[in-house]
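Design job #97: recover the sequence.
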């Protein structure tokens, strides 16, 4: 189902109202990513990247921040015991709530109730907890500098690759790459012109870390055949939205969110099936993290 940019903004606004209305509930019911994604007629993966791209923060972080803001409001405007305010904010104990409150606001709940000022939590879209007197909720979708991060529509020719499958946190794929290179080096398949790419199947803010799927891939010709743990597959073969990612690999989620919001928020196209591809343009072994450059390829339906 294609939507216009205005449709997506209205759907996200409806989700934001839903969140503020049901903050006291657990995140397995009306605040679950599955339920909120259904409100937007989107898969959880697609919805979450659009949410982060338009709102500017991950869904879980947004809900957590608003719960803490509401708790701060109740500390100053009610006589509820702090332990009750902690439970209302879905924290299981006074201690856990105090740690989270202090970490985010810079002082303890009791100190804030006593009158000490707190530092306000940043909101990329200027969305904060509302009191009943604040009127209708509004939000300002993030604005991106189109001139600094171009999106191109390109065809990705089918490419035959040898790969090792990684299942687990994306931060740990370095070990999989080490194994792959250790196997391919003696076979003479590594050199200055070797094309290395990753196939990313899941959103780490939607899929549990232990279930994330990623293939470390190196392009090979028809003469290479699968052996041992080394598999062979074809990647690509369609149209992709492409954006350059600069900097550490752990910040890929920011680039994905921007690409989704800009490319798929206008209704002209939707993301396609299959993995997103990451083409690594320089060597992390000899390049400072801040200077790493990669291409992010997202399939278009």
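Job complete. Output follows.
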């Amino acid at each position: 189902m294609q939507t216009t940019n205005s449709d997506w903004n209205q759907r996200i606004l409806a989700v934001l109202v839903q969140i503020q209305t049901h903050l006291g509930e657990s995140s397995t019911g009306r605040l679950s990513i599955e339920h909120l994604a259904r409100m937007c007629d989107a898969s959880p993966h697609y919805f979450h990247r659009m949410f982060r791209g338009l709102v500017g923060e991950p869904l879980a972080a947004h809900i957590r921040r608003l719960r803490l803001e509401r708790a701060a409001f109740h500390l100053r405007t009610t006589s509820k015991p702090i332990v009750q305010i902690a439970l209302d904010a879905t924290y299981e104990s006074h201690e856990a709530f105090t740690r989270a409150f202090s970490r985010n606001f810079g002082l303890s709940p009791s100190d804030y109730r006593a009158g000490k000022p707190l530092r306000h939590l940043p909101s990329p879209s200027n969305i904060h907890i509302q009191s009943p007197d604040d009127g209708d909720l509004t939000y300002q979708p993030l604005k991106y500098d189109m001139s600094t991060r171009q999106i191109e529509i390109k065809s990705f020719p089918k490419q035959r690759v040898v790969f090792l499958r990684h299942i687990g946190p994306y931060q740990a794929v370095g070990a999989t790459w080490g194994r792959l290179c250790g196997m391919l080096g003696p076979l003479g398949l590594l050199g200055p012109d070797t094309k290395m790419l990753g196939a990313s199947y899941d959103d780490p803010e939607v899929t549990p870390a232990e279930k994330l799927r990623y293939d470390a891939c190196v392009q090979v010709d028809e003469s290479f055949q699968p052996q041992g743990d080394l598999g062979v597959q074809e990647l690509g073969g369609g149209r992709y939205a492409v954006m350059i990612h600069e900097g550490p690999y752990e910040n890929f989620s920011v680039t994905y969110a921007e690409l989704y919001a800009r490319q798929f928020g206008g209704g002209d196209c939707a993301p396609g099936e299959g993995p997103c591809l990451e083409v690594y343009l320089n060597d992390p072994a000899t390049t400072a993290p801040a200077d790493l450059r990669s291409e992010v390829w997202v399939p278009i339906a």
